[in-house]
Amino acid sequence: MALPLQRTFLRPILEIAAQSEGRLAYKEILAELIPMLSLSDDDLQERIPSGALRVDKHTRYSMHLLKRAGLLDAPGRGHYRITDRGRQYLREHAESLDQAQLNMLVVEREQDSPSDSVAPSAGDVSPDEQIEVTHAQLQSILTDELLESVKAVSPERFEALVVELLVKMGYGRGRQVGRSRDGGIDGVVTQDRLGFEKVYVQAKRWNTAQIGEPEIRNFSGSLDPHGATKGVFITTSRFSPAARQSADDAARNNKTILLIDGPKLARLMIEYGVGVVTKAVYELKELDENYFADA
Fold first, then answer.
1. What backbone torsions phi and psi does residue 73 show, to the nearest 5 degrees?
2. Neighbours of 255 (CB within 10 A)
3. For the chain, how many structural domains are there in total?
4. Please, which residues have CB within 8 angstroms of residue 165's CB and are 6 or more apart in sequence?
5. For the segment 74-92, what is each residue's pLDDT rounded down to a tens digit?
6. Contact indicator for 84, 29 with CB cutoff of 8 Å
7. 33 Cβ neighbours under 8 A, 6+ residues apart
8. Which pLDDT score is estimated for 174?
């Protein structure tokens, strides 16, 4: 018997989470899924072309979708629990969940954050479009997992990570300032490899609270003793509208302050290879019609 389709994992995972008093680790959820879905040993050993276990991919992607829809949350790295919205959904809906329903829930929840909109479903599209859709979905999962991992590191490790990322992005030398008497500065990178101009960095590893206007104003002020005019404020959280306005207002004082929030940080880490490794590379070819054209 083949492994059940991925969408059949959605509601059972939510029900498992609803039966728990607290948070559950991924392995605990998978252990309860096995008897609930009557998965055989053969099912558990089924692999996708890359070699990964299909049950693992089904389970992790289902949990990612439920989290994006606000039905689950992740209070700690690798742990999940049902939300009030998830319990309400179970009470009001007896039917199975599917991708289309979850997409609607994600849109409702994230309508004020268009940059985080759910990736499209690989339903009625051509095979090459399916590849692009699947890639976008995998990138979305990786972005969430990466951000959760970053939030779990120490503040010192986060500062070092931020400096490493900026150097890989093409800045020159970089160094972590350290925790003592940093005056609101956590790192310094040179704008070019010769080191003609310095860019000062503040890194805030926050889990939930937004970065507000006072933090940006204080960071702007911390540039003055160094005679600096350029800064990058990086956080695992978000920036409030007032914080973004404060960064824009700094231009009136001939300062440039760039803001990088959690999702953008994770995307940059993926793009520049910080905290990630390449698992597989697929080459897609198409017919060269010019080769066969009449001379």
1. -135, 170
2. 17
3. 2
4. 265, 268, 269, 272, 274
5. 887 778 899 999 999 999 8
6. no
7. 9, 12, 13, 16, 39, 59
8. 78
Its domain, for residue 266, covers: 155-271
Residue position matching structure tokens 């206007």: 213
Same domain, 104 and 209: no
Instruction: Give the list of residues 6+ apart from residue 259 with CB closer than 8 angstroms, or none.
Output: 211, 216, 233, 239, 243, 244, 247
Contacts of 140 (CB under 8 A, 6+ apart): 64, 68, 118, 119
Count how many residues are written for the chain: 295
CATH number of 169's domain: 3.40.1350.10
* Centroid of chain to Cα 68: 11
Based on the fold, state whether residues 32 and 98 are members of the same structural domain. Answer: yes
- pLDDT tens, residue by residue, 123-159: 445 566 677 778 888 888 899 889 989 998 888 899 8
Distance CA 168, CA 39 (A): 44
Query: Tokens at residue 117, please?
Result: 């909109």
pLDDT tens digits, one per residue of 5-16: 888 899 999 999
Sign for the pseudo-dihedral over CA of 251, 252, 255, 261: negative
Same structural domain, 104 and 188: no
Closest to 273 (Cα-Cα) out of 169, 154, 152, 138: 169
Name the β-bridge partners of 202. 233
Q: What angle do CA 29, 30, 32 make, to 5 degrees?
A: 70
* Span 218-260, pLDDT tens digits: 999 999 888 888 999 999 999 999 999 999 999 888 899 999 9
Q: Which residue has the tokens 């699947």?
A: 134
User: How much of the chain exceeds pLDDT 90, in percent?
Assistant: 35
Using 50, 70 and 90 to split pLDDT, how confident is the model at 290? confident
Residue ending a domain, among 87, 114, 141, is 114
Instruction: Specify whether 159 is located in the same domain as 233.
Output: yes
